[in-house]
């Protein structure tokens, strides 16, 4: 087990130690939540969001100061880790839950976390939606449609999208980041600055990139 796995396991233990009746975030929900915070066009300080991690009341009910410091430190460490990944490549690798009975990838908790972060700054997201290009608008609408499916407010069924959503979500976030965090996009080398859904006509966007990177063409050389 590498250090990153150990860090996430420890984070999971700390979150599970919070009062279960308060419905604290899982690691997957937290991962989507901090990604949404970092993708927001407006900076959101921890004082505005940290209490949401603890659950519906916002009260973590820590038994002592040491536990509080350890848990908050673990949450902020994950926030900083996701921030570093985004700053380096404008790309995220979502942490999804896995159904232990069916081995099915559960994207819903991650999307729920992301959209909960969006709800903290609705005006900033609405302004982005108004000025964004067509691809980004469609991407944002797709993310919100996934949340509608999760909470049962969509005409589409889980089965219609379950197979594709886990692969589509990272590309959606990358597309949004190019619009919502342009300062990061400008800092990237020229060969990383395009939109993740663009692709050359001879290679399908979901095909492996011919450069041998192991990534899909649409998020590698297909960005140019």
Could you please describe the fold and organization of this structure?
The chain is mainly α. It folds into 2 domains: 3-188, Four Helix Bundle (Hemerythrin (Met), subunit A); 190-224, no CATH class. It is built from 9 helices and 2 strands, in the order H-H-H-H-E-E-H-H-H-H-H. The protein has helices at residues 3-16, 27-39, 46-54, 65-89, 108-118, 122-131, 134-151, 165-180, 182-186, and strands at 97-98, 105-106. Strands 1-2 form a two-stranded antiparallel ribbon. A hairpin with a 6-residue loop joins strand 1 (97-98) and strand 2. Helix 2 (27-39) packs parallel to helix 5 (108-118), helix 5 packs across helix 7 and helix 7 crosses helix 8. It is globular and about 50 Å long. Mean pLDDT is 84; it is low at 189-203.
Short description:
The chain is mainly α and 224 residues long.
Query: Mind describing the biggest β-sheet?
Result: 2 strands, antiparallel
H/E element string?
Answer: HHHHEEHHHHH
The structure class reads mainly alpha
Low-confidence stretches: 189-203
The fourth-level CATH homologous superfamily of the largest domain is YgfB uncharacterised protein family PF03695
Task: Return the average pLDDT rounded to an integer.
Answer: 84
- The count of strands amounts to 2
* Estimated share of beta-strand residues: under 5%
Q: How do the strands and helices of this protein lay out in sequence?
A:
Elements: H1 3-16, H2 27-39, H3 46-54, H4 65-89, E1 97-98, E2 105-106, H5 108-118, H6 122-131, H7 134-151, H8 165-180, H9 182-186
Helix pairs in contact: 1-4, 2-4, 2-5, 5-7, 7-8
């Amino acid at each position: 087990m590498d250090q990153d796995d150990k860090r996430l396991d420890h984070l999971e233990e700390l979150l599970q130690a919070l009062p279960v009746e308060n419905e604290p975030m899982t690691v997957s929900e937290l991962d989507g939540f901090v990604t949404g915070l970092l993708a927001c066009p407006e900076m959101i300080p921890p004082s505005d969001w940290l209490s949401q991690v603890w659950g519906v009341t916002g009260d973590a009910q820590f038994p002592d100061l040491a536990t509080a410091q350890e848990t908050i430190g673990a949450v902020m460490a994950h926030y900083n880790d996701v921030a570093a990944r985004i700053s380096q490549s404008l790309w995220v690798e979502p942490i999804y839950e896995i159904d232990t009975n069916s081995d099915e990838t559960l994207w819903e908790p991650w999307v729920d976390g992301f959209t909960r972060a969006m709800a903290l700054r609705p005006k900033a997201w609405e302004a982005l939606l108004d000025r964004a290009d067509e691809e980004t608008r469609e991407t944002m609408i797709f993310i919100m449609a996934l949340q509608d499916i999760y909470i049962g407010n969509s005409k589409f069924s889980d089965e219609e999208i379950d197979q594709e959503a886990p692969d589509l979500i990272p590309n959606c976030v990358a597309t949004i980041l190019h619009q919502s965090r342009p300062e990061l996009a400008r800092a990237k080398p020229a060969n990383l600055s395009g939109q993740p859904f663009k692709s050359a006509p001879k290679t399908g966007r979901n095909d492996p990139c011919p450069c041998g990177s192991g990534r899909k063409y649409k998020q590698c050389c297909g960005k140019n």
